[in-house]
Specification:
Chain lengths: ~425, ~475, ~120
């Protein structure tokens, strides 16, 4: 079967839905969302805790409620949805190859594509925890799905490695469902989770958090019987003298997320080793004309509200592309300055920006009071004060178009020989928060 | 009463069972674990060796070179996945060159095919990502890669399809020699058989002792491996061995049959036969050693580490013989590397042994079916084939394992074949569901549901691999009870 | 006099709050907004949390469906609420906001559904 669309969105999670709706609002007619699961919503379906939507909807929702708002909007439109559909690849002619039980093998042609496949969790192998290979080792997300979607308990005595928000939320969730969560271990000297989750997920239930700790060995031939934990030194190397055996039947891993870009690679989309997602411009255009990316496939977000915001940009970008109002010129390039791990978008076409460009960035270590600054040459074009910046919290940083234009040597649009102007984004520490390590 | 009972459904036992299934015999294949290929056969390098390495005159040398030549036909019949990709033994200096020349000579005597000594440029052309320091190499065109557990499963499945009675979860606890047969005690009913073939791998010494044969011991030698994502697969095209030195055999780097980069194995004698742990020290040594051949692999792309135990005997060669003390009791033991390569040749030889011993008469079956029904692997099909298949069987259009592109149809097929299986690992080894970069993170809940629907096993009773390796403890809500 | 240090959980900033009660008057410091003050007062007198969990669902896409307490309930009652909800069984169709248990444990708070399941697959193409 070969079908033709204006826009195909790969992934029906928060990013894909918001992108499709935005494209629709910007006049794109013939839109298809491809979703591999049996329902829209993506990972939000299993995130049944609250805390979503504070920015976007100005109220606190659970994951499924947040996603339902978008599903309801989509149902009001003519956007097509194919569920239970797996995209296999995007070929050199930018055609999407997908299969589903209902439609067989499909080749889908479209004027534009939005990548919104999300991310996956790092596994035991990826962080190389040694020992035996019994059952009872789960990534936090797998355990979350088993409990919240399938209604099964993975275990009774739990040790959690990794104190990102998913690990913390699962500590509470498993406790509520009757498991004994013995401890949460964190390799770093501070948690990657938000303080509120440390309070309401760990402290509320008296679950200890061990910072500077890791797991050095897994025990048990059939099912996990225990783990050896260890304190780590300043180089994150386990300290032999601190080894301690903890009996447990389950190990949950919450040790990081990786954008899932296998399909992007098949389309020869260029990836950034810092984000592990595509290099994109201000409207989330990739290096392949007509292919856009947003959400966790682009870079791992910690707040879904920003996924929706970013996806709306991609939808708008795709709409412009489909209308033939898209100019692939790169006028500016964002550069990591001091203290910054990555800045997104990596490039900009200033002519696409109406009045502000929103930069997303992450810092490389914890900062107390500080200032985020954007520079073109010797000119400070934007700055923002923060009371605290953490590597685990993505920072939102707006730059006004006129500030950029005022400091750039811009020739007329479409000047392809022009070197992009560099915008350097850096962080300037004012003092150190005494609560920070 | 069986004519022949084979103990152990690893690659050796399964190959023998299939070879004997060509004759009019009543055959029994016993396996202590929940699936075939649960020991050494599931965790090794997956290589069909060229046959130049084992010392001329040994059983290893004899059966390795012969076994290599049988694989093309086996692949045609059994569809387990085999590719002759060639191998290099790479050398960096004159000492290595001497060793390589000796290996070449030894290989010629062993009747190994496709051997050639080549220079660094030849290597560079075929293997551009290997070290720049390579001066010389022994190239062996006939070496290949297979998926060792898929091979073993295919052999056992075809044996069962041809009448072999496979008994899983059946551990042998005692063997009594009677006048003209053996009584094999298990935790179920005893089994009677005229001939017993001991192919119990790591435990073959234990089985031999049950009839009073005590002239060998099996010393487990652990090999630890690192398996990488397919993104690293392009770094090698063939099998890359290091030149053996007094310090050891070095480690290999290979693109596995399914396209992952794999490095290893280490080599350490251990105490416990079933201890397949990995350790930080050893894996770090493997990584360090592999960098010598292949400097630039990305450790961020590691999928998993694992280990397998070689069944090394105190006789330092394969033991392939009928006991002189106990006629009718055949030991196939100490089958360490290149045992996988040798397996089909050993199986043929066992048939000759049985025929020569006049213990039982061998009559060729007229209806032996050498063909095993291939899987429809969605990841390997072209659009037209796939479309036709999905039209007929829509479950092939539902992808369960996204990393390896495995469909519900393949999983259901695996669950309904002649070897009864019910574990996650058994499904994984037949379909690859759960073998990819997310290591079952996304598909585990879905596979549990399929096993429940197909076999009616409650999810809390489904296991990963062995008794006690349960996945979930129960339902979350009392309302389900 | 009672005094307590706490971290505000109203938003991701996580202010360090100090709460003291002198002669029945509660004083909060460290908060950057009025929500922090309210939170600290409540936390000192009677800490409350929203509980999110699942209940058994018949006829749905999956065997459980997520629910939450419509408003925060006293922390001390969380496990009792979980126990009641463990025995609850409902049938499709269910809609966001449908009441599963009214006025649970006399808290004045209803437990409500947080996901739609109409009892049929939803695909449009």
């Amino acid at each position: 079967m070969t079908k033709q669309y204006d826009l195909v969105v790969i992934g029906g999670g928060p990013a894909g839905m918001a992108a499709a709706l935005s494209a629709k609002q910007h006049g794109v007619e013939n839109i298809l969302i491809l979703e591999r699961d049996k329902e829209l919503g993506g990972i939000l379906n299993q995130c049944i805790h609250n805390g979503f939507g504070v920015h976007h909807f100005k109220e606190e929702l659970t994951g499924p409620e947040y996603s339902a708002r978008f599903i309801t909007e989509i149902q009001k439109t003519s956007i097509e949805i194919m569920l239970d559909t797996m995209v296999l690849k995007i070929d050199n002619h930018r055609q999407i190859h997908a299969i589903s039980p209902n439609h067989g093998y499909m080749v889908l042609k479209s004027k534009a594509i939005i990548l919104a496949m999300g991310c996956r969790e790092r596994t035991r192998g990826a962080i190389r925890i040694y020992g035996s290979r019994p059952s009872g080792i789960y990534t936090a997300g797998t355990a979350q799905r088993l409990i919240n979607i399938n209604g099964y308990m993975p275990g009774k005595e739990i040790v959690i490695l990794g104190s990102g928000d998913i690990g913390l939320v699962m500590a509470r969730r498993m406790t509520l469902e009757g498991a004994q969560v013995k401890m949460v271990l964190e390799l770093q000297s501070r948690s990657n989770g938000t303080l509120r989750n440390i309070v309401q997920c760990l402290e509320d239930y008296h679950i200890p958090l061990y910072l500077n700790h890791t797991i050095v060995q897994i025990h048990g031939k059939n099912r996990v019987e225990g783990v050896t934990i260890a304190k780590v030194d300043e180089n994150l190397a386990p300290i032999k003298a601190s080894y301690q055996y903890i009996p447990c039947d389950t190990l949950l891993l919450s040790v990081g997320l990786i954008p899932e870009n296998e399909i992007s690679k098949s389309a020869r989309v260029k990836l950034d080793s810092r984000t592990r997602g595509p290099f994109v411009g201000e409207l989330r255009q990739t290096n392949i004309p007509g292919i856009f990316a947003c959400g966790n496939v682009l870079h791992v977000h910690d707040v879904v509200d920003f996924v929706s915001e970013e996806a709306a940009l991609a939808g708008y970008g795709a709409a412009r592309y489909i209308r033939g109002q898209f100019d692939t010129t790169i006028t500016h390039q964002t550069i990591n300055g001091e203290g910054v791990t990555y800045v997104l978008p990596q490039t900009m076409n200033i002519y696409h920006i109406e009045d502000t460009c929103n930069l997303y960035l992450r810092v490389n270590k914890p900062y107390g009071r500080c200032q985020i600054e954007a520079w073109i040459g010797n000119t400070l074009i934007a700055s923002k004060r923060e009371i605290r910046c953490l590597p685990s919290e993505m920072i939102n940083f707006k730059i006004r178009k006129e500030a950029i234009v005022g400091s750039s040597d811009l020739r007329p649009a479409q000047a392809i020989d022009q070197q992009p102007t560099q915008i350097i984004v850096k962080i300037v520490g004012m003092d150190r928060d005494p609560s920070l390590p | 009463m069986f004519d022949i009972c084979i103990i152990g459904a690893g690659v050796i036992g399964s190959a023998i069972a299939r070879e004997l299934a060509k004759y009019d015999l009543s055959l029994c294949l016993l396996e202590k674990d929940q699936d075939v290929s649960s020991g050494t056969s599931k965790a090794n390098s997956g290589i069909v060796h060229g046959g130049y390495d084992a010392k001329y005159g040994t059983l290893k040398a004899k059966f390795c070179a012969r076994g290599n030549q049988l694989y093309d036909q086996l692949e045609k019949e059994l569809h387990f996945g085999f590719r002759r990709v060639g191998s290099f033994v790479i050398g960096f200096d004159d000492q290595d060159r001497k060793t390589i020349e000796a290996l070449y000579e030894n290989g010629l005597k062993n009747n190994a095919r496709g051997l050639k000594i080549v220079d660094g440029d030849f290597v560079k052309k075929r293997e551009p990502y290997l070290s720049d320091q390579i001066q010389v190499a022994l190239y062996c065109e006939s070496a290949g890669v297979i998926s060792p557990y898929e091979f073993t499963i295919a052999l056992a499945e075809n044996a069962v399809d041809n009448g072999v009675e496979l008994r899983l979860n059946t551990e042998v606890v005692g063997i009594h020699k009677q006048a003209d047969h053996f009584v094999i005690k298990t935790h179920q009913k005893p089994i009677q058989s005229k001939v017993v073939i001991n192919a119990a791998g790591l435990y073959s010494d234990k089985i031999a002792k049950m009839v009073g044969i005590e002239d060998f011991e099996i010393q487990p030698k652990r090999g630890e491996y690192v398996l990488f994502d397919k993104t690293q697969g392009h770094l090698v095209n063939s099998i890359i061995f290091q030149t053996p030195t007094e310090a050891g055999k070095g480690v290999l780097a290979v693109r596995t049959y399914h396209g992952n980069l794999m490095i290893g194995p280490s080599s350490t004698y251990i105490e416990e036969k079933n201890n397949v742990n990995t350790t930080a020290e050893t894996i770090n040594e493997v990584i360090h050693a592999a960098r010598k051949s292949l400097p630039n692999f990305d450790l961020k792309e590691v999928i998993t580490t694992f280990s397998g135990n070689r069944a090394c005997s105190t006789k330092h060669d394969f033991i392939i013989e009928e006991s002189k003390k106990i006629p009718g009791f055949i030991n196939i033991a100490g089958i360490e590397s290149p045992g996988l390569t040798a397996a089909p040749a050993i199986a043929q030889y066992v048939v000759e042994m049985v025929a020569a011993s006049h213990l039982i008469s061998l009559q060729q079956k007229s209806h032996f079916n050498p063909e095993r029904r291939p899987y429809h692997h969605v990841s390997e099909m072209n659009p037209k084939e796939l479309n036709e298949l999905i039209q007929k069987h829509p479950e092939y259009g539902r992808i369960i394992c996204r990393c390896e592109t495995v469909s519900e149809g393949e999983i259901k097929d695996a669950l309904s074949r002649s070897i009864p299986i019910n574990t996650l690992d058994a499904v994984k080894r037949r379909t690859r569901a759960g073998m990819g970069r997310c290591q079952g993170g996304f598909c585990t809940p879905k596979i549990l549901e399929i096993i429940y629907n197909e076999l009616g096993i409650p999810v809390e009773k489904i296991e990963k691999k062995t008794a006690g390796s349960y996945i979930v403890v129960g339902r979350t809500k009392k309302a389900f009870h | 006099m009672t005094q307590q240090e706490m971290i505000c959980i109203c938003c991701p900033i996580g202010c360090n709050l100090s709460v003291e009660k002198i002669d029945g008057v509660i004083r909060v410091t460290g908060n950057k907004c009025p929500r922090g003050k309210a939170y600290a007062e409540q936390e000192l007198l009677n800490p409350e949390r929203i509980v999110t969990t699942t209940v058994k669902l018949t006829g749905g896409l999956y065997p459980v469906i997520p629910v939450k307490t419509g408003r925060p309930i006293p922390k001390t009652k969380i496990f009792e609420v979980m126990d009641i909800l463990s025995n609850v069984e409902i049938t499709v169709p269910v809609h966001i906001g449908d009441v599963v248990v009214k006025n649970i444990l006399d808290t004045g708070v209803d437990v409500v559904i947080t996901k739609n399941d109409m009892g049929g697959e939803y695909e449009r193409s």
